[in-house]
Design a protein that fits this description.
- The chain has 321 residues and is α+β, with helices and mostly antiparallel strands.
- 26% of the residues lie in helices and 31% in strands.
- It folds into two domains: 131 residues, Rossmann fold (3-Layer(aba) Sandwich); 131 residues, Probable inorganic polyphosphate/atp-NAD kinase, domain 2 (Tumour Suppressor Smad4, Sandwich), CATH 2.60.200.30.
- Strand 3, helix 3 and strand 4 form a beta-alpha-beta unit.
């Protein structure tokens, strides 16, 4: 009887081991299948000139040679195929910002290939077809950064106005009249701004519109908002940095003149007296990255940060004259 029990127990152990091996094989097969599955790129662009069309042809031929799947997107596009791996923005920073209105809260990573002028947010420069960047993505040699977004709300907002922004939300005069802007941060009032307008920027947006008004440069993964007045009529007003957990309320004093509310590159008219609420969005934008140093490289290459003839002597590969 004891021998029978021991034999039965041994059989059960063998069956369990066998099941584990089978499950392991299936898992390995599934993993290999996922690795070997061809990547699916969703492509989006706005306006293409003759030079851009040539680059796009090179790009598409390269993707075809690699066996990648391609879907073209046209704005407005609110739903993307569920199996899209990467959303490719073909253009400048404006095109990249528009990508948010299509990717939305899907979590699909966005990568930019610069077909525009500056292309600070893009991964590949204007002198590159983007093939090398695509190869790195298809090899999995990239990471995904989560970029914070701003949400703006107010009563009477148009239904077709997408209330989320990657760079900034701005409120500015529409007529040639200075406006007053009352601001409360987490319920605490700060002195009224008398200016052409006010913008609330994310860390990502610190190198965009805010920079033009003397705002600071902030590393993209910083959890802050930048409150920057636009041409303030006061000598002692400076940009203010607050945590991005803050809730900001803005009340306009326009004396009957309309104002313009913008979320990145999308704008609507607003009347004076409106209470505009701004806070961190409940989701983020996933951006393809090739290393943390790429931000500092972009500062140097695209915004000429630290450009000084004395610094040339310190660069590797350059000889002192």
């Amino acid at each position: 009887m004891d021998e029978f029990k021991n034999h039965t127990k041994l059989q059960k152990i063998r069956i369990k081991v066998s099941n584990i091996k089978i499950k392991s094989q299936y898992l390995q097969f599934g993993l290999i299948h996922r690795i070997q599955r061809k990547m699916h790129f969703a492509l989006y662009g706005r306006h293409f000139g003759p030079d851009a069309e040539k680059r796009i042809k090179i790009l598409l031929d390269h993707l075809s040679e690699k066996g990648a799947r391609v879907s073209w997107c046209q704005a407005p596009c609110r739903t993307l195929p569920e199996d899209v791996d990467i959303f490719l923005s073909l253009g400048g920073d404006g095109t990249f910002l528009n990508s948010l209105t299509m990717v939305r809260d899907s979590g699909i990573p966005v990568a930019g290939i610069n077909f525009g002028r500056l292309g600070f947010l893009t991964s590949a420069g204007s002198d590159d077809s983007g093939c090398a960047v695509l190869d790195r993505m298809m090899q999995g040699a990239y990471s995904v950064e989560k970029r914070s977004l701003i949400e703006v709300s107010y009563s009477g907002a148009p239904e077709d106005f997408y209330p989320f922004a990657l760079n900034e939300v701005s409120i500015q005069k529409k007529d040639p009249y200075m406006i007053g802007i009352e601001v409360r941060i987490d319920g605490m009032s700060i002195p009224t701004y008398w200016a052409d307008g006010l913008l609330i920027a994310t860390a990502t947006g610190s190198t965009a519109y805010s920079l033009s008004f003397g705002g600071p440069v902030v590393v993209p993964d910083s959890s802050v908002f930048i409150v920057t007045p636009m041409a303030p009529h006061n000598l002692n007003v400076r940009p203010l940095i607050v945590p991005d957990t803050s809730e900001i309320e803005i009340v306009l004093k326009t004396e009957g003149h309309p104002a313009l509310l913008s979320a990145d590159n999308r704008s609507v008219d607003v009347d004076g007296g409106r209470v505009i609420k701004i806070r961190k969005a409940g989701f983020s934008l996933s951006c393809v990255s090739f290393g943390r140093n790429s931000f500092f490289e972009a500062l140097h290459e695209k915004l000429l940060w630290g450009e000084d003839r004395r610094n040339d002597r310190c660069r590797p590969g350059l000889k002192e004259q």
